[in-house]
Specification:
Length: about 400
Amino acid sequence: MPFLITLILVFLVQWFHLRLLRLELPGTTHRALPWGLGLLHVPLVVFAGMRIAGLGGHGALALVQTPARAAFYFQAFTVLHLLIAMLAEGSWRIFHHEMPSATDSEAEEEAAEDPGRRAFLRTAALVSTGGAAAFTVAGGREAYGEPGVTRRTLAFPDLPRGLDGLRLAHLSDLHAGPLVGPEPLRRWRWLTERERPDLLVITGDLVDSRPEELAPLLEAFRGFLPPLGRFAVLGNHDYFDDPRPIWRDLEREGFRCLENTAALVQRNGSTLALMGLQDPMASNGRFRRLVFGPGPRPAEAARDLPAEAFRICMNHRPSEWDQALAAGARLTLSGHTHGGQINPIPGFNSARLLGPRTEGLYRDGDDLLYVSRGLGVVGLPIRIAAPPEIAILTLKRA
């Protein structure tokens, strides 16, 4: 059903785009436009169908991936084009005190008979193309530029004395894959290692969609061995395919993968309990009804932990903070939101569509949640007003 709804939306957007193009382009091109738009989206439909059918390991999937991504980018341009055209059309009618025509055919005839209006719409189309290009360049520079290093000191009145001053590096949403290659992964590793953290935690979405995309990430972080260890939980993207190879390869490279379990870390005679909750995607199976776990189970994650241990929970989605609190977490680390990733409206974070906790530090009494903007990108290779982030968090006894 989600695939069918998406397909309907794609064709609906292109139907409106087709009508707009007929106003902007010469009449000699009108007959070929539906065929051109249709052929453009064949790889996208085929790619989505193969992913849903679970054909991720087939070579044919790789062949259609690049043209499918091009079709997806065209969809993004189409939406921007339509929005600017709608604004231009509205501005024209307000300026000329015109009412909308009764039918689409009348609108096309009106445009054909009014050279001024046609020229105005054509200029608007050029402006939309230039705006999209500028938007993409600025967003690409932000997405692939130097990530910000956020350094925060987090105070807890009951922090065990031996954990005072502990520095942890929190990374999230690296999305290794088609849009994040080895070079940015190596740069992120170098910037993180330069901070000399005591431990490294990664809160999910290590890959974009396929287990084999993990290899360059593991290669980039090979040899980076903080004294208290490296830990990870999986995110929703890590469950787009069978996650078992990801669990296996993380453990082989020395990462502890915490899925509804915990690890005890000793420092200066004090105990840190680092817990991990499994992402809900493990149990809902996406489109193929494949289940790889029960989802978050706070009671399992906190089972048999020493009472004196200070509890930190790794939980991919900030919307699941209540689950971490149920496990007794004093500090919860999350990602998932990308800080909105693309925030075109000043003052409004697009991640608000996912929930109220979008980025940064949140408090519930003495318990804290830190939501990272993450490092990678998903869908479009851009970030707007949501720069990538490496979080260095220092624990302090209040």
